[in-house]
Amino acid sequence: MARKQAINYKMKQRLQIHIDGAKRAGKTTVAKGIIEALRLKGLKPALVDMDEIRMKIFGENTGKPDSAESLGYRHWVARAMCKVMAPAVLDSGGIPVVVMDHDFVETYEYIKELSRRFGFSLKFIVLESPDLEEAKRRSEFMLPDDYSDMKNWSDPAIRASFLRSAGRIDDYYKNIAESCLIRIPQSSVENMIREAVRFVFDESE
Questions:
Q1: How far apart are CA 204 and CA 23, in angstroms?
Q2: Alpha helix locations (H) across the chain?
Q3: How many angstroms separate the CA atoms of 137 and 159, rounded?
Q4: Nearest-CA neighbor of 52 among 2, 14, 100, 11?
Q5: Residue 2 reports pLDDT greater than 50
Q6: pTM recorded for the entire structure
């Protein structure tokens, strides 16, 4: 049994994990929980985070959320992540744990094609949206390594951007029923991470 489990965990290395959700849904927090679980199994995960990459390449002045300027930067970063960064991690034998806005058809379909091309499994996790007040509350406890552009919730444009983000996620994924995709409802951080890890490792309750 132990040998079979070891082989199964080794097979999990032929895997890419993508996490989507509205702003402040907990995507990066869940990603870090998954990464810790993978490392405990002796695997080699790598976090590929859209907000971190955008900030480190372009800095803070990338326009207000959802503005044409901001979307231009985000689409550039998304292409770089899908076409260069995630494939590089896969090619090196690692597991990319990708956190980004997938809420447009082209990116989701390209990610599935990437898995087919590499012959790797895909685990796609969609975190259901928190309500506006919960999202605002979470922004008050942002950590120093939080690179989100959703910070000043007194700005009506920020609140409107959150609602649009939540609406896009809900509209896009509500009709997708595929074995590679799971929707995780909002709950405690521990519960969301636990459910995500079970999905990654194909574990039941």
A1: 29
A2: 2-11, 27-40, 50-58, 68-80, 86-91, 105-118, 132-139, 156-173, 189-200
A3: 12
A4: 100
A5: no
A6: 0.86
